[in-house]
Design a protein that fits this description.
Helices cover 33% and strands 21% of the residues. It contains ten helices and 14 strands. The strands form two sheets. An eight-stranded mixed beta sheet has the order 8-9-10-7-11-12-13-14. A six-stranded parallel beta sheet has the order 3-2-1-4-5-6, sandwiched between helices. The protein is globular and about 60 Å long. The structure holds nicotinamide-adenine-dinucleotide (NAD). Nicotinamide-adenine-dinucleotide is lined by residues 31-37, 57-59, 62, 94-97, 99, 117-118, 144, 146, 184, 197.
């Protein structure tokens, strides 16, 4: 009789959904009721069962519309009014990075915990000031780097922790798609674009998976005819002391009808590869895919069926992590100090682009 093929010795249990807080009644109030709040934050919080008490926006009509569409009980006429509501424990801020520090200053003075949008600030000094304000006030500050909770990335981390990759030797994220930056006029006109607003997710996720690089080298450019002020396509190479190399290749001006968004991690023991579903049809997207193999089980490629989406599902992660940190008096996964290191890489990449040289991220200081 033919022997039954030997099953792999181990099949990982990929428990990639966010760890939820003990209490679901933490009072959240939203500052800035724009696009991302409407199509990502609020749908995610509804799915998770979080307690959104109210919303404000410089444009009060926008706040009212958001409250109506998402069944939010209260519209605050001003930030002051929101901050003086004692039932608000967390200010969930989603305004422009250039003004985020002003809101952080007021919210920390009022003793509110904060979930801030990425990028934490448009200048490194403002980001440092934001983190220091929170530390001085003794409140928690987390940054909404939610790609860490995107299913493919979180599963890759679980596999790495479980030894499937061994020592990482090579990693890449490559995304070629068409992005209409005119949907965000304030980004379109800005002096920083692709790295500051998009690749920052890849930078943060790769740091999360692999740690911090020694050197970064970046080339940034635009496609022919593009009229944004800043770069829309970038190639970045990171070097680690261990010999690990990373490539981030992000191009938003591809005209071809075969967009792709892939990640791949290679190590001494295995390979993990997948697709980033969101980037095939932003902001609707599709679930990520994930495949992996390891010398532990030669000849087998495993694939995981992932049923959650970057938007909105991954947006539960940073908020849940902040709530857990409040409950346990610990540091949120994407806490402010950690985020400064992501921003050091962002600004190191810009310095590298300008000066045409490899830059060590710790060169970026106030
Ligand atoms: N995946 C992601 O994590 C992701 C995606 C898109 C945008 N973002 C970030 O979210 C933030 C908002 O982006 P968006 O696309 O929603 O922009 P948007 O222009 O649609 O919305 C911003 C809102 O903030 C309000 N606002 C501005 N300054 C304010 C202030 N001082 N007080 C109160 N309200 C104020 C505006 O009136 C507007 O309604 C940005 O930092 C952006 O980088 C993150």
């Amino acid at each position: 009789m033919k022997e039954t093929p030997k099953m792999p010795e181990a099949f990982p249990h990929l428990d990639y959904k966010p760890k939820m807080p003990r209490r679901m009644d933490h009072g959240i109030a939203i500052v800035g009721a724009g696009g991302i709040v409407n199509y990502a934050h609020l749908p995610a919080y509804k799915k998770a069962g979080f307690n959104v008490l109210g919303v404000t926006d410089k444009n009060l009509d926008q706040a009212r519309r958001t409250a109506r569409e998402h069944g939010i009980p209260k519209v605050y006429a001003s930030l002051d009014e929101l901050l003086s509501d004692r039932s608000v424990e967390i200010a969930d801020v989603a305004v422009y990075p250039s003004v985020q520090v002003e809101i952080i200053e007021q919210a920390t003075a009022a003793g509110k915990h904060l979930l801030c949008q990425k990028p934490l600030a448009d200048e490194y000094a403002k980001a440092v000031r934001s983190v220091e304000l929170a530390e001085k006030a003794g409140v928690k500050l987390a940054v909404n780097q939610q790609m860490r909770w995107d299913a493919g990335i979180r599963c890759a981390q679980l596999l790495i922790d479980d030894g499937w990759l061994g020592v990482p030797t090579y990693a890449t994220i490559q995304v070629h798609c068409k992005t209409d930056w005119s949907l965000w006029p304030w980004i379109y006109e800005g002096k920083h674009l692709e790295i500051m607003f998009h690749s920052i997710h890849y930078i943060d996720s790769l740091r999360y998976l692999l740690g911090d690089p020694e050197y970064v080298f970046t080339s940034g450019s635009r496609g022919p005819g593009e009229t944004t002020k800043a770069e829309t396509k970038t190639l970045s190479v990171w070097e680690y002391a261990s010999g690990l190399q990373v490539l981030i290749d992000a191009c938003h001006s591809t005209w071809q009808d075969d967009p792709y968004a892939i990640f791949r991690l290679e190590g001494t023991e295995g390979v993990i590869k997948g697709t980033i579903g969101l980037m095939y049809n932003y902001p609707k997207g599709r679930p990520d895919t994930l495949e992996f193999m390891s010398k532990r089980n030669p000849g087998y490629w495993f694939s995981a069926r992932l049923d959650s989406m970057w938007i909105p599902d991954a947006f539960v992660g940073p908020m849940a992590s902040l709530m857990c940190a409040i409950e346990n008096n610990s540091v949120p996964e994407t806490g402010g100090r950690d985020n400064l290191r992501t921003l050091q890489i962002v600004f190191a990449e810009y310095r590298s682009m300008e000066e045409k040289r490899a830059v060590r991220p710790p060169e970026i200081v106030v």
